[in-house]
Amino acid sequence: GAGVSQSPRYKVAKRGQDVALRCDPISGHVSLFWYQQALGQGPEFLTYFQNEAQLDKSGLPSDRFFAERPEGSVSTLKIQRTQQEDSAVYLCASTFSRGNNEQFFGPGTRLTVL
Amino acid sequence: SQQGEEDPQALSIQEGENATMNCSYKTSINNLQWYRQNSGRGLVHLILIRSNEREKHSGRLRVTLDTSKKSSSLLITASRAADTASYFCATGGGFAGSQGNLIFGKGTKLSVKP
Largest alpha-carbon pair distance within chain B? Predict the structure, then answer.
């Protein structure tokens, strides 16, 4: 029974590079969330998928951020032309159904932009 | 933006003592959840209390909820060194917390000294 997995666990990028962060949710989980966690802060919501549909992307900080979940399972968060302020831990979480329930989090990807 | 605040921001106690953390939030909720985060295991769900509940227990954890004051508390009894972590409260996003994404506070950093 695997939990939520994310890769890579650590990513160092030079300013201006594009990065892609992957999330494998728990099998059968309908809802998938991406959060950004800055150092010393709580996670902040980025975007939400129900199956393959992106229902809310209101938390994405700029149009450089793009997320997809084409087959309703694995999701990728892409950040184009990375900036230093993008440095954070990116967390993925999944739940079995929609609604405000317990979420299962992955270990996160720590992104450092130099 | 974050939903509310936990206090204290940091708490240091001896093993065996009780630890109390408080959380305030801003909008109406369906439920409130508490999560723990440490470097070893990522963000883990601890307990969920529904808006029509006032108190809930789970092992050494006791959570209270006062919807009139928009506040919650988490009590950890007989603390252990392994309880050292950051603790976050979280409420649901969207109207009355129905959307599914979580809104986290800034967290309380608990240190339990052996």
Answer: 44
